[in-house]
Amino acid sequence: MQYDPMKQSLSRFFNRSVFLRRVFFQLLDLLLLRTWHIHKELRRFMRHKQAVRQVLDAGSGFGQYTYFLARKQASWNIHAVDLKEDEIAASKTFFDQAGIKNVDFEVQDLTGFVRPHTYDLILSVDVMEHIEEDEQVFQNFFRSLKKNGLLLISTPSDRGGSGVTREEDTSFIEEHVRDGYGAKEMDRKLKKAGFQRVETRYTYGKPGNFSWQLSMRIPLTLVGASKFFIILLPFYYVLIMPFVLLLNLADLHLHHKSGTGLLVKAWKE
After folding, report:
1. Which residues pair with 119 in a beta bridge?
2. Burial of 226 (0-12, 13-18, 19+ CB in 10 A)
3. CB distance 23 to 64 below 8 Å
4. What is the pTM of this model?
5. How far apart are CA 171 and CA 4, in angstroms?
6. Which of 198, 199, 208, 216 is nearest to 254 (CA)?
7. Residues 6 or more apart from 62 whose CB is under 8 A from it?
8. Mind listing the pLDDT tens digit for each residue in 41-79?
9. Which of 160, 177, 183, 255 could staple 260 via S-S, CB 3.0–4.6 A?
10. Measured on CA atoms in the order 20, 22, 24, 27, is the torsion positive or negative?
11. Does an H or E element contain 261, and which?
């Protein structure tokens, strides 16, 4: 399934006003389990990391993580980059209209983007599975971090990420260049890039994977088959939302031996 056209349609609708864009971000925060895990890690980082000045949102997309950080930490300078000009333009407009001043946006290709010794935190959510030259990007991240800086990555795993569970399966998202990362593969590539300390853990265990099927795969598949199902989506989500929230909460607090998502933290020491 091509995910980008759906994202563009959503973006056009919710970009009509600052209010709608904020509602959109709240919906993403509720529905997307990876957001639950990322917010948990970011709050932990905020509690324990002192004197943060510069943050990079590497592949900012809709800008929801930039929005979260900018509102939580007004003293941080957040640089958000993305390859897609339309997303960057929409984000610039929204943040200007919302009066959020500690953010700047730029169109950039991460394979060639380096700002040596600049960032205390680099965030990369659902990005690396789209980039063929991932090792080059990891090297760029390492060079761009300050000493003791943190790289935080969320990406599909090779344990069923992108909806791939068998060898003959294809990715649910056609824009992915890889189905997912293995924990050992990610550890090896990051250490090759220069990171000495790397921690990985699985997300989207059994409860999270079930939540994703209910909240994302089923409705997107139906809408992809026929635009008629868009009319039914609000009623569908009203029915499933209590179950989705409970499943997300369980996934957030349980330890998973395996999962379709991978959360990675790497430090530049």
Report:
1. 145
2. exposed
3. no
4. 0.90
5. 14
6. 208
7. 7, 11, 24, 25, 28, 87, 90, 91
8. 999 999 887 788 999 999 999 999 999 999 999 999 999
9. 160
10. negative
11. strand 261-267
